[in-house]
Amino acid sequence: MRSGRGSTEAGSTLYSLRLYVYGDSPNSRAALQNLNRIRSSLEVTELKVEVVDVSKEPGRALKAGVFLTPALQVVSPGPERMVYGDLGDLDGLLPLFGGRADER
Amino acid sequence: MSGMETVRMSDPESESPLEKVPTGIRGLDEILNGGVPAGALTLLAGGPGTGKTMMGMEFLVHGAEKGQPGIMLSFEERAESLRRYASGLGWDLPALEERGLLRLISARIRPDSMVSGDFDLGAVMAILQQAADELEARRILIDAPDALLRLLDDTARERAELYALHEWLLDSGAAAMMTAKAHDGDDGSSYGFLDYMAECVIHLDQRVRDQVTTRRVRVVKYRGSSHGGNEYPFGITDRGLRIIPVTETSLEHRALGRDISSGVPDLDRLLTGGYRRGSCTLITGGSGTGKTTFLSSFALSAAQSGETVLYLDFEESRDALFTCMLSPGLDLRPAWESGKLCFLSAMPESKGIEKHLIQAFRAIEDHKPGHLVVDAISASRRMGSEGSAFDYLLRLINHCKQLGVTTLLANLSSAESAGREITGVDLSSVIDTVIMLRHVEVHGRYVRELGVLKSRGRSHSHRVHRFRITDEGISIGVGEDDLA
């Protein structure tokens, strides 16, 4: 099952993520907080997050096809996926990172 | 004194201090009394396939051609599709893009995207801002924002985001257009809210009436400006959109000009000179009364004196007409071959009135005729309803009068009402001269008769005259009055 995913030495899975935010907007702050909650509720998963402020780098948003903010791009492992919103629905998101809703 | 007031009232400029941007779309600026509001939002609302996107795109193309850069942001279409649609309308978008006069941004959301919680249009506005700065955009089109906003699934949130986008557009200072899928009376949704927000609202509509598809456009709102309030037919052609208005100003026709021979010397005498240039003459009569012969006499005579005549034929083929007219001694073929006599043949049933009008307008554009002959206007009823026929004829005659083109129309009327009935639609206000033709039975023989029922602004014979169609054309018996 894990063959396609990047693994750390400790055997946990490494996820490379990009979070597109718009400056310090309320939605963007909420997304950062929610992402931290996801991180803390996952035991065997590491999240590497790059934050892109589209108000400063609109070119990157255009290139990535990000027209709504906040947006979370799962860069690797596996096929690229995009999640729009402030990540408020934790239960819906945990399975994306190999976690289960009841692990919190 | 009241005359002075009327003049001032009818001048749209004096009552609209608003700064306007001409759209360049044929007919639309007339309805808008100059164009869309500068630095404000114009909403293009209508159902799917009504031409909203095309209208917005043409607005950008005309701007770009005048050196005003534009941005099109579509939430629905790929840039490649937009370029393809545009090329079908005769616009080369890649050329404009290369010159920095146009930027296409496709903001389609990948269908496999997930949604989790609240989001906003921050990224779109950042992307727009960058493009607007780079291009120094003067015109902006936002196409189908509903496609993105419906992901919010919350009417209040949709409104808030549209409001934010509107604020951004106002700050940009550009003339903006936004398309929205909406219909008349569709309020309560976020798009009813858009109607309220926009300075100018244009509704586009496509409907099927009497099995013929017609497109209509209507300006439902224009804050601070007068505008044409009617529904106007329009078409999407391979040269862009074309709206066919009958505005107040179009009724200010040119004064009627000098006489031109009707091609029938006897008729010239009855009309004290002939037809008047730029006027509209109707020849009405039953089947076989000689209408086409009068039309052809005029067309040939004008073409032979070096003037261009456009013959709009709903009845028969050009070759059939050539053959028929040899019998009264009218050889039309050489005039056609010389290019002075042009033909446009059409089946009335084949398309809606706007397409017929566009085809006729285009032929007038291409051939620049001094005179237009229509055989026969009664056929226009077959374009749909009585109303369609009226729309068609009024706009065609108006257009010709504005250009100073003489129109000579044939109308097939039933034997009983011959002469008194004009197509069943009231065109009397635009028709200057009416000539009635009929058959009358005298001592067991049919006799042809002609009468001038009306000739605006000049004296004419009030008697009924007999006439004959000989192998040398039409001959009118000026002295006979026994049947008057």
Taken in chain order, the helices and strands of chain A follow as: EHEHEEH
Radius of gyration of chain B: 27 Å
User: Count the strands of chain A?
Assistant: 4
The value of Rg of chain A in angstroms is 14 Å
Which percent bin holds the helix content of chain A?
A: 25-40%
| N-to-C span of chain A | 23 Å
Find the structural class of chain B using helix and strand composition.
alpha/beta
Number of strands of chain B: 23
Overall 3D form of chain A:
globular
Chain-averaged pLDDT of chain B: 84
Gap from first CA to last CA of chain B: 45 Å
Biggest β-sheet description of chain A: 4 strands, mixed
CATH hierarchy class name of the domain at 22-90 in chain A: Alpha Beta
Helix content class of chain B: 25-40%
Spatial order of the strands forming the largest sheet of chain B: 5-4-7-8-3-9-10-11-12
Structure report:
The complex is a heterodimer of chains A (104) and B (484). Chain A is of the alpha+beta class and 104 residues long. Chain A contains three helices and four strands; from the N terminus they run βαβαββα. A four-stranded mixed beta sheet of chain A has the order 2-1-3-4. In chain A, helix 1 links the parallel strand 1 and strand 2 (45-53). Chain A starts with 12 loop residues before the first strand and ends in an 11-residue tail after the last helix. Chain B is of the alpha/beta class and 484 residues long. Chain B is built from 15 helices and 23 strands. In chain B, a hairpin with a 2-residue loop joins strand 22 (464-470) and strand 23 (473-477). In chain B, helix 8 (155-172) packs parallel to helix 9 and helix 14 runs parallel beside helix 15 (386-403). The model of chain B is unreliable at 1-16, 184-188, 247-251 and 480-484 (pLDDT under 50). The chains are: A alpha+beta (104), B alpha/beta (484).
